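[RESIDUES AND BACKBONE]
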Amino acid sequence: MTENTRIVLASRPHGAPTTGDFRFETDPVPSPAEGQVLLRIRYLSLDPYMRGRMSDAPSYAEPVPVGGTMVGATVGEVIESKAAGLDVGDHVLSYSGWQQYAVEDARGVRKLDADTPLSTALGVLGMPGFTAYAGLEKIGKPRPGETLVVAAATGPVGATVGQIAKARGARAVGIAGGPRKTAALLDEFGFDAAIDHRAPDFAEQLREACPDGIDVYFENVGGAVLRAVLPLLNEFARIPVCGLVAQYNATSAPEGPDRLPGFVNQVLVKSLTVRGFIQREFVDELYPQFLAEMRAWVRDGTVRYREHVVDGLTSAPEAFIGLLEGTNFGKLVVEVGAARS
């Protein structure tokens, strides 16, 4: 335990990232000061938002500097503590990024309960789950009998969105890529309908799955899915916008009716509510409520989750590139090191 391997941003990608945009560096393992803990990172979360942080375009968060450690949520084990209330062996949620060890202030971590799998703090009981919960609770507000549509529906946000909608009494229509994922939406996650966005008649299938139109469209993809959804939106439909993964690697503006004039026309004539959000804005208000309700749903099977775990920090760059291409199935997590039993 003398060296810390970390992955830094080597260059800013133009279009899709490549492994050449990342670089491995080795430094001495840091030592904690008073009020700090030294963590051995056990799990690293890989999420689409990281593509935006690789760019220096204006956004809601500062970009990762070239040469800086890639950002990311982590679960770590305390292996040295100089902070009251945190002991060696405790596990915490932190934002330590793509590395094996990290020193964090005690105020910047959250101690994890021992009664749930550690990795869920990065998925259904973490940022993705809270994104789904907050977006529906504050913006989407699905009501009994309404129809909700969500794309990337086997991902950690999309799957949770659909299951919360079902718990609130709405119909859930999920969009995913390939028959294996659409089957899981029906058989594993309990969606009412599932559509393969790769199908040549995708737009027609979506129309047939939504005979009464769409009341809530949880937007996390954009592109062709948004173009198919727009004509089906009902008056007063609500659109929480948390991501546009189909456009993250784009090098030019999108074409078609999802360009600004056509989209704004739909907003006007259908009295749509469109609200972009970053989950952190609702943390103070909703996080305790989210944890209580989501833990209960996970325990009783109302909400199920799937994880896609890859082994070793060295796997992170290729796994992240695959995430942006939709190759993962479930919440993508890197097992940096095995947790103690």
Remarks:
- The CA atoms of residues 204 and 276 lie 27 Å apart.
